[in-house]
Amino acid sequence: MDYSNFKHKFPIQVRFVDIDKLGHVNNAVYLSYFETARVAYFDEVVGERVDWNKTGMILAKSIVDYKTPVFQHDKLVIYSSVSKLGNKSFEISDVLVKESFDPSINSELRGKEEIAAFATFTIVCFNYETQSTIEIPQEWRERIEAFEKSGQPLK
Description:
Layout: E1 8-12, H1 27-45, E2 55-66, E3 75-85, E4 89-99, E5 113-127, E6 132-133, H2 138-149
Antiparallel strand pairs: 1-3, 2-5, 3-4, 4-5, 5-6
């Protein structure tokens, strides 16, 4: 998967609690990593103009492809991009990239970037007061479109 055009980049710290009995990050933890990156994307791109008690989002669909395990000493980054904007929902694509720093790993692989997983999430805009789906707020749409079309990636 080519993520070179993804403008949002967010670092993820592997915590000791993320590691399972087999010594790698448990597959369920990846969903938390992706969620953290999604929230950061939304905070940075759309900003603080949301009353989460009234208007928000719900996760409708998750698709995750796991490519290679992640270990405690790996350095992680998630690249994100809104890949589709509908009327009431949008799709966000994420790529989890790792650099291996585990000393037990072959020195040829140590420090190389590698895709650990990629995912697509369908997010539906929702009004919590009426308990119904809503159209994507125009301000959100404008900010997302402007960000995705800009030539400037966020650091």
